[in-house]
Amino acid sequence: MGEQPASPIGAEAEPTRLQLAVIAAVAVPLAGAGLPLAVYLPAFYAQDLGLGLGVVGAVFMLTRLWDIVSDPLVGYLSDRTRTRIGRRKPWIIAGAPVFGLATAAIFEPAWFGVKPGALWLALWLSAFYLGWTMIQTPLAAWAGALSSRYHGRSRVQTFFHVTTAVGLLSVLILPALLDQTGHGRAGVGALKVAVMGGFILATFVPTVLAALLLVPEPDPTAGRPVNAPVNAPLNAKGVAAALRDPLLLKILASDFAVTLGQLIRSSLFVFFVAAYMGRPDLTAALFLLQFVFGVFAGPIWLQIGYRLGKHRTAVAGELVQMAINLALLAVTRETLPLLIGLTVAQGLAQGSGNLMLRSMVSDVADLQRLSSGEERTGLLFSMFSLSGKFATGVAVGVALPLVGLLGFRPGHANAPDVLFGLKLVFALGPALAHLASALLIRRFPLDQSRHADVRRALETSALPFAPAE
Fold first, then answer.
1. End-to-end Cα spacing for the chain
2. What DSSP assignment string belongs to 360-421?
3. Are 415 and 276 in contact (CB under 8 A)?
């Protein structure tokens, strides 16, 4: 991943590459579940199982409301957890069976001998999101505490970005192979979804076990004010103050916008390639191509971040993605090479904003810890996770019904004006969302210099530090 520039603090031990690779490997099954959840599962349940676009869109959006309670609750409780194995590990251990069982139910419904309906989908999606939260939120807080350095945190998140891309690439190879071997025809939805579900379950157990056994949690007493208790109580007033932080709100709003743009594009990608381009045989292969190049995106944007700083790099990445999505307006059935080129470019820009924004959450947690004496890392990462999940639900819950209202019917012949409407939503929706993300984060005061002051104060002073305005 490259070595980070020297930190002005520089006293803390940084995690080894092996430790980062092991803990980041958990992102493989999580990513392997997340993308099909937005791309293949809506189409599978809407088309193959006959639930319809409106019903599926509503279920995916409404089940996200459960996260409004579960995400901050898990983040808050994991901040307060004290065990011999750490704060975060017990939550991951408890969430693992919930995640595994719900994954089987959603991706492999035939194993349960039922024909899934809307209620089945809603119940198991809710369980899936709960299990995911019990793993992802503590894991993010754990990873966010592995380094206390400004650029070190970007390095940690780059490992997660790369393993996420590898997970996406791995799970997307499977439907691409099915398409190319002739199994991606009638009934492909059930087969593709089942194969991807099997991949998720097969990679989940070993990666979680390796992280739990081989990567220690950082000392929770390190880098805190000397007068702050390790497990300071966090009351409702403290939670409200944490969530009203203008710096956190900037990050959450920006991440919501970038994730919204990504998921609008992802949720419509299958329909765009199959119906608008008339190439259903290329849907999986083109998605796979994007994530082949997505593996290289993290290291590229990490190097840019070393030079520009986190928030400027996030802005640059979002503007690049906006331009790529606007260029999709020029794509027609006769310009397949242009779509291929834009897919490669999308891969190289993939997750640039998310990477930097996730790293910035840990910096804000440092500032809040110094000004309040309270440990809030898990809580803040739970809100970051919640913003992304909510954006995913909104993307599916808005994009699918919108193209349905425009007259689009998956699996049927559609008029040219209907297909043009599909293209407008597919291109302009993400472009506007990426632009909004860039505008929201363009003026972010907690840069490398100010963060060095925060870390120095955490290590040398018991006095509260004035928050940035």
1. 33
2. HHHHHHHHHHHHH----HHHHHHHHHHHHHHHHHHHHHHHHHHHHHTT--TTS---HHHHHH
3. no
- CB of 141 closer than 8 Å to CB of 75: yes
Provide the greatest CA pair distance for the chain.
69
Q: Which residues of 310-343 are buried (b: 16+ CB within 10 A; e: fewer)?
A: bbbbbbbbbbbbbebbbbbeebeeeebeebeebb
| Whole-angstrom distance, CA of residue 352 vs CA of residue 350 | 6
Residue 86 to residues 90, 218, 219, 277, 413: CA-CA distances in angstroms?
7, 9, 9, 51, 56
Rounded to whole angstroms, the Cα distance separating 153 from 455 reads 13
* Alpha-carbon gap, residue 246 to 292, rounded angstroms: 37
In Å, what is the CA distance from 224 to each residue of 153, 221, 359?
A: 17, 6, 19
100 near 109, Cβ under 8 Å? Answer: no
Residue with tokens 């006769």: 334
pLDDT by residue, tens only, the chain of 469 residues: 554 444 333 345 688 989 999 999 999 999 888 777 777 788 788 888 878 878 888 888 788 777 788 888 898 899 888 888 888 999 999 999 999 999 999 988 888 877 888 898 999 999 998 999 899 999 999 998 888 889 999 999 999 989 988 887 887 787 777 766 665 544 447 788 888 889 999 999 999 999 999 998 876 544 444 344 444 455 567 678 778 899 999 999 999 999 999 989 988 998 999 999 999 888 878 877 887 888 889 899 999 999 999 999 999 999 999 999 999 999 999 999 999 999 999 999 988 888 899 999 999 999 998 888 888 888 898 888 888 877 877 887 888 889 989 999 887 889 999 999 999 999 999 999 999 999 999 999 999 999 999 988 888 754 444 444 4
Instruction: List the domains of the chain with CATH numbers.
Output: 17-460 (1.20.1250.20)
**Rg value, the chain, Cα:** 22
Distance of CA 233 to the CA centre of its chain: 29
Structure tokens belonging to residue 238? 């403290």
What is the rounded distance in angstroms from the CA atom of residue 431 to the CA atom of residue 262? 9
Listed in sequence order, the residues at least 6 apart from 323 whose beta carbon sits closer than 8 Å to its beta carbon are none
CA–CA distance, 340 with 287 (Å, rounded to integer): 10
Q: Is pTM, for the whole model, over 0.70?
A: yes
Determine contact, residues 17/156, Cβ cutoff 8 Å: no
